[in-house]
TrEMBL record:
GO molecular function terms noted in the UniProt entry: peptidase activity
Protein name: D-alanyl-D-alanine carboxypeptidase-like core domain-containing protein
GO biological process, one term: proteolysis
Domain annotation D-alanyl-D-alanine carboxypeptidase-like core: ranges: 154-215
A UniProt-annotated Pfam family: VanY
InterPro entries xref list: VanY-like_core_dom, Zn_M74/Hedgehog-like
Alphabetic keyword roster: Signal
UniProt signal peptide: 1-18
Top-level taxonomic group: Eukaryota
Length: 215
């Protein structure tokens, strides 16, 4: 006689929510809604809705090696942790930009340290902190003086610092890296989209729908 036993394994559904990592002024954080942040919420560093912001640990300001930083745990520092500049536990150290020239309170470094920072709204109506791209980094230096509403001549502060390091390293290797088009306002994307749809301006060149452009 053959007995067959059937086992039914019921597995409940498990919801997994992946959180996006972010960095503000060299301090590591996580993108989350402002109401769930127990630290400091900083706009302009996360995708999605306006209330989805970079949540970073709060810490007092500090200065190390001529650079402005924040007193946070060493594990939360994406730059360089410098001991002896902050009160509290031994792992609470001054987090500043790694290498290069002195940084700034806006998280800028290298040739962009001290650059004027403005705010521009991008996809999802999220406000981003941006700076003008330096003339030597543009394929068309003439657009540097134009307003961001008239030319794609800005980039986010985080991008500016990273690009400056990359451009400097490339220059040492004999390679010049230039930017043809930077951060774009939603209004400019709407203009290009309408041109693409109507073929009445901008040569009817291909353009992404506003809100979906990688600019």
């Amino acid at each position: 006689m053959l007995f067959i036993f059937t086992c039914l394994l019921v597995v409940g559904s498990v919801a997994v929510s992946a959180q996006t990592a972010c960095t503000v002024n060299h301090v590591k954080g996580t993108c989350k809604v402002t109401t769930s942040c127990t630290g400091k919420s900083v706009a302009g560093h996360c995708p999605g809705a306006a209330n989805n912001q970079c949540c970073i640990p709060t810490g007092s300001s500090c200065t190390a090696s001529g650079k402005s930083g924040s007193c946070v745990a060493t594990s939360a520092c994406a730059g360089t942790s410098v001991a002896g500049q902050c009160p509290g536990a031994a792992n609470i150290q001054c987090c500043v930009a790694s290498g290069g020239a002195s940084g700034s309170a806006n998280g800028l470094c290298g040739s962009y340290a001290g650059a004027a920072v403005s705010s521009i709204k991008g996809n999802g109506n999220v406000a981003y902190s941006v700076v003008k791209i330096r003339t030597e980094h543009l394929t068309n230096p003439a657009i540097h003086t134009a307003a961001p509403t008239a030319a794609d001549n800005t980039m986010t502060t985080t991008t500016a610092c990273a690009f400056d390091k990359m451009a400097a390293a490339a220059k040492q290797a004999g390679v010049a890296i230039k930017i043809a088009s930077g951060f774009r306002t939603v209004a400019r994307q709407e203009y290009f989209w309408n041109c693409y749809q109507t073929k009445s301006c901008n040569n009817g060149n291909l353009a992404a729908r506003p809100g979906t452009s990688n600019h």
